[in-house]
Amino acid sequence: MQFHAGKCPNCHNGRLFLFREIETGDVYGHCEECEQGYRSPDDIESNIGFLTLLDDSDAEWATEVEISRSVWANYRILDT
After folding, report:
1. Domain boundaries of the chain, sorted by first residue
2. What highest taxon heads this organism's lineage (predicted)?
């Protein structure tokens, strides 16, 4: 199952899918349209992101358990 945190505050078009960085285990939101990334819900609210294409880290879809143990645990998460 894939999880997302709603619409991207940068492009207002894509969904912020939740991924886990393999090296660090950190869960972050990744926009499917503009490739903007957000490391926390606070970053979404402040629209402080990073361009994921410039990050060399490998990532995979975050699981429900990984999300529940991350900074995203109390944020409204949707499944696809």
Report:
1. 3-79
2. Bacteria
